[in-house]
Design a protein that fits this description.
Pathway: Protein modification; carbohydrate sulfation. Its cofactor is Mn(2+). It is a single-pass type II membrane protein. The structure is a single chain. The chain is built from 20 helices and five strands. By secondary structure, the protein is mainly alpha-helical. It has a five-stranded parallel beta sheet, sandwiched between helices. The radius of gyration is 23 Å and the shape is globular. The chain binds 3'-phosphate-adenosine-5'-phosphate sulfate. The site of 3'-phosphate-adenosine-5'-phosphate sulfate (PPS) has 19 residues, from helix 3, helix 5 and helix 14. The site of 3'-phosphate-adenosine-5'-phosphate sulfate has 19 residues, from helix 3, helix 5 and helix 14.
Length: 487
Amino acid sequence: MGPLSPTRTMRLWGPRSLGVALGVFMTIGFALQLWGGPFQKRLPGLQLRQPLTPSPGSTVSSCLPRQRLVFLKTHKSGSSSVLNLLHRYGDQHGLRFALPARYQFGYPRLFQASRVKGYRPQGGGTKPPFHILCHHMRFNLKEVLQVMPSDSFFFSIVRDPAALARSAFSYYKSTSSAFRKAPSLAAFLANPRAFYRPGARGDHYARNLLWFDFGLPVPPEMKTKRGNPHLPRDPSLPQLNVLPSGSGPRAHHPLDPNAVFHPAPTVAGGHSQISSPSSLDLGSLSFIQWSLAWLDSVFDLVLVAEYFDESLVLLADALCWGLDDVVGFMHNAQAGGEQGRGAVSNGGLTAEDRQLTARARAWNHLDWALYVHFNHSLWARINQYGQSRLESAVAELRARREALAKHCLEGGEALDPKYITDRRFRPFQFGSGKVLGYVLRSGLSLADQEECERLATPELQYKDKLDAKQFPPTVSLPLKTSRILSP
Ligand SMILES: Nc1ncnc2c1ncn2[C@@H]1O[C@H](COP(=O)(O)OS(=O)(=O)O)[C@@H](OP(=O)(O)O)[C@H]1O
């Protein structure tokens, strides 16, 4: 084996070595950011497949589809919609999933390889290696590399922390002790310290959930300082506008990054601009910068929920997959949630909503740094890919989704769970809102029925299906026969 590249070396270093390596890695981190990282190179073209029912293998391809994938499934960020397409792809191509015994890998504890069903420590078994690792975990690179090859495609998804906070508050109202005590999200964010105790049950759901899921430690001073040093002095800050894909003013400037990021007060140039620098100290900034540089060295792509379709086109391109492989329906939306209300668009928000958004971003300032960073990376990739090329692919993707929805779904859209009587399609109901799901139209052809089922199956049921396929129940032999066969 040749010498390890700086990128590979950084992958192998865990974030827990932060204290020791900060100086060295900050330099590397900044350099990585300046160069755009080794993964920002131009990617091969996207292939489009037209038929309604995809026909695997029908694509004339100049690149080889990537089939070793690590997807960090972050919470409340659109990750179940991504999971559905991974489940479908792996299912249809006969790939092996690294599955948890139940539905998560020991979350909220850091991922451990021993949690993977059928995992044998290296050299300990003859089972073929896994292709896809994609269920909820707290990321832990060292252990992930025990299960997946280091040249797997690593990707994840982030969401605006304000939208994520709204979603998490409703979903984890009874799970997080901080949320449980708060009468509303507005009350919580007005004075989070009144409700939030670090280390209390489910507290990670209440603050910087993305940062936590990425396995990053909190900056040391956040653990020690009393009060909240990171709340902006003016609660109406920051002024970044984040628009959901396909709505609001984006209709006029569909892919203009300047429509996404309005100038915000920042300390430094570069990717990781923190919205309220006056309240952040240098140690904190270096820590965040280092962490982001580390993530850049590990993750090949980070999708952005607010630009979900644009992200999917880039994903298909990076993986050398067809567009049909990434077309899917939205999963895990809560009735009355962000998607239901159809808006994070600042234009459509009341003054109270805007204040809540600003407070949520400030309270979750590590997530906000992550989000801003990966939003910038996404737009850098979009520019590389070509905006008009991307616009056509996004239009194609949406047309395909609409056609599939009309063809497969009763009502052509997600429905209240009270209409979903078939347990195979009823999403797990949790939290204070209703989780929407799908009812299939009747009279579909056998092939379309199968395809529509795959698209509509919620994550837990799909995981069970893959589990049963990968670990078929062993047939127990009748007693007499087994006696004859045993030595
Ligand atoms: N395509 C797309 N684009 C934008 N947002 C999307 C998308 N798909 C799902 N969602 C929203 O993501 C929320 C669910 O996130 P997750 O699936 O990650 O949740 S979970 O952690 O697995 O429970 C949930 O948010 P809320 O409805 O606000 O709760 C979904 O509506």
